[in-house]
Amino acid sequence: MDYDESIERLVGATRRLDATIKSMPPDEVRNPSFLPGWTRGHVLTHLARNADGFRNFLLSARSGEIVPMYASLVARDVDVEYGARRPTEQILDDAATSSRNFVIDVSSTPHALLSSFAVNARGASEGPRIQVAEVLRSRLSEVEIHHVDLSWEYSFANSPTDVLDVLITRCLERLGDLGLAPVVLSASDSTTRWESGDAALAAHVSGPAAALLGWLTRRGPGADLKVENAIGLPDVPSMG
Fold first, then answer.
1. 199-237 pLDDT tens trace
2. What is the pLDDT of residues 194-209, one digit of tens each?
3. Which of 53, 106, 139, 237 is found 20 to 30 A from 14 (Cα to Cα)?
4. Which domains are assigned to the chain?
5. DSSP letters of 39-76?
């Protein structure tokens, strides 16, 4: 992973999110998002608390002490539900400020620390040890995908090609562990190709990178995708 490039992608994604936040009228915050049961206020609050949680993870890496991302998983969910009921201007400001603060924090993190490993505790004193730099891909995924979930003037068609490439790669890694059937993906608007599982048994799926990511994240029907070596698009497991 090129840390400087990864940080620049995250900076760009955060700026695009900030532009959307600034363009969204406060009375739109209470309206439904793409995610069932969540308003745009829920999505924005989730993004804010996720940014704060990742800052706690960076604090763990710096201090050598376990600092949970959240007080508990229950508290995380309560914070999102409560936070979505705040005044809409406060929700918008919180999402923008927390997102910018994380970018500032991770941008000042030395490369040596990004290369190290730390405990990723999500509300408990225990958790897996992961490379600190993984926070760059994780936060990029949160920002870009939930930006689309806001259902406000932004879709994966607005995502830069390099961001789409990173997110498709990360989705395939996660979905492979969840039982996605073997696939070979080809982006028709770039030269990028991905393989997951046994290529000899794989469905070959091609189309615009934005449509590929929409299908993999279950944010799009895959209507613009072509399938070979299979009958229809493979089922995509939920990543939760």
1. 889 999 999 999 999 999 999 999 999 999 989 999 999
2. 999 998 899 999 999 9
3. 237
4. 3-154 (1.20.120.450), 161-228 (3.30.1050)
5. BHHHHHHHHHHHHHHHHHHHHHHHHSS---SSS-HHHH
